[in-house]
Amino acid sequence: MLTISNLSKRYGNKQVLRELSASFAEGRVHGIIGLNGAGKTTLFQCISGLLEYTGSVQYSKPGPLKNQIGYVPAEPYFFPRITGGEYLAFLAHAKGIKGAELPGSDTFELPLREYIEHYSTGMKRKLAIQGAMIGAADLYILDEPFNGVDIKSNLLIKQRMEELRAQGKTVLFSSHIISSLTEVCDEIHLLKDGRIARHYLPADYPAVESDLMAL
Amino acid sequence: MVGFYIRMRFRQFLRFFSFHEINPVIGVVLALLLFLGFSEAVFIKLPHPGIAYAGIAFVLLLQMQSPAANGYLLHSVGQRIFFRAKLAEHFIVLLPFGVELLVHGFYREALGLLLVLPAYSWWSFAVPRPRRFALRTPYMRHSFEFLSGFRTYWVIYPLHLLMLVAAVLSANIYVLLVAYFWLLLFLFTFYGRLEDATYIWLYRASAGRFLLRKAWPLLAQYLVSVSLFVVCGAVFFTPELPLLLLCVVAGLLGLLGSMFLKYQFYPSEFVVQVSQMILLGLVVLCLFSPPYLVLLVVLLTYSFFKAKSKLKAILQC
């Protein structure tokens, strides 16, 4: 169980998260929705420990939470003149996975021997997702994973999420594509004014779109 | 359009100071003072100051290029306007350097800098860059810095080799030193580049171990890079070998220090760059007065511990 209590984050004068409290059950896929600027990315960065915050984030499993997270940022950054394969090999090395070879084929059929700057937006997104899957994480945080990806990859990402759920992993992801959320999520959390304003179970999903429109 | 582009770049320059919470007027004055002080130091301290100064100016120009921004501009305005805009921009950037060269009587170097302008502005869009497939290297799994820097600025290595040949043919130790510092300056830029916090965060290692895991590839890559310089020095400049080895040691300490400074002042890019420039100055100073090596080691140690404590927060260990 991932438990967040009274989480607050401020950028200068702007209060983004206000004493947010929520709990995310293990082995489930959780969707986070909200308008632009609602604080979804900030929430993910706070949970990952990439941002300092006030309040607490606790995970039921022992050990540093950071080492149990596979994280895909909203705007993945890549060094210039690095190939996709080198990027994945570097991630494996950084996560302490020994003997990682340059992968020849992969889930998303990416051209791993090409420089990442030649990748399209969707290919970069897929590479970042594949990178997050390296290492034995328990909690996957995917910030807008469906942005810019084609229909085939969209299906592959959903399949991957379902596989993770079947393995007992927890997935948190944000998206503005309601159909993607409702198809794959066990629960959806609406972020508004820096707090979780509403929590939806599958039976409530028909209300998600109208609630978002009413914001 | 060119005028608009130049005005926009000037506004960006002023906003650079505002972004770092420095009043733009004070920022411009400080930058000017820093530039004048740096220029004087180069002309007083460095051998062959005209060539070194022109080289530094050109390296600075290379550093200011953003492939993404250039690509966007080229596609937005077309080749003709892009060329004129870049030519004007490069001219403005190199103008103060050219004036300094003229003031100090280095007319040939100033002319060289002026002549290189149109060629470089043309090259920045006209030469295709088809390198879609990359050669595998033994560094692939290690830190990105060298791999990324080497592939972006690989041309410095053949130039370094040419300078070494010129040094041997002319039996001029100063040319050899210029060849070394040319390489070192680029290595500083490779390792001085700030990475996104995610790429530090994802390491499953303590802060000390993280720094060691960055330091070992740096050591290996540095030694491979300077090996030709050392061989040339040992074979053709044997009496000057102690000075050359001092260069190698001071350069290595400086490079390690620059990496530690990066993490000490992370993520403030401006502070990192200024502190790295000061460190580079200290490396040069070591050649004139070796006791400064002690100061370099002290600084390195201090920076290591400061970097460690900064990294602890990001690595959460």
Task: Give structural attributes.
heterodimer; A: 215 residues; alpha/beta; Rossmann fold; 6-stranded mixed sheet; 3-stranded antiparallel sheet; B: 317 residues; mainly alpha; 2 domains; 14 helices
Structure report:
The complex is a heterodimer of chains A (215) and B (317). Chain A is α/β, with parallel strands linked by helices and 215 residues long. Chain A has one domain: P-loop containing nucleotide triphosphate hydrolases (Rossmann fold), CATH 3.40.50.300. Chain A is 29% helix and 27% strand. Chain A has six helices and nine strands. Chain A has a six-stranded mixed beta sheet, sandwiched between helices. In chain A, strands 2-1-4 form a three-stranded antiparallel beta sheet, covered by helices on one side. In chain A, helix 2 packs parallel to helix 3. The longest helix of chain A has 16 residues. The radius of gyration of chain A is 17 Å and the shape is globular. Chain A starts with a strand and ends with a helix. With 317 residues, chain B is an all-alpha fold. Chain B folds into two domains: 127 residues, no CATH class; 182 residues. In chain B, helix 3 runs parallel beside helix 6, helix 3 runs parallel beside helix 9 and helix 12 runs parallel beside helix 14. The chains are: A alpha/beta (215), B mainly alpha (317). At the A-B interface, helix 2 of A face helix 7, helix 10 and helix 14 of B.
Q: Helix and strand succession of chain B? A: HHHHHHHHHHHHHH
Number of helices of chain B: 14
CATH topology of chain A: Rossmann fold
Runs of chain A in which pLDDT lies below 50 for 5 or more consecutive residues are none
Tell me the distance between the termini of chain B.
52 Å
Secondary structure: helix percent of chain B: over 70%
Strand content of chain B: under 5%
Task: State the separation between the terminal residues of chain A, measured CA to CA.
Answer: 29 Å
Helix content of chain A: 25-40%
Question: What top-tier CATH class of chain A fits best?
Answer: Alpha Beta
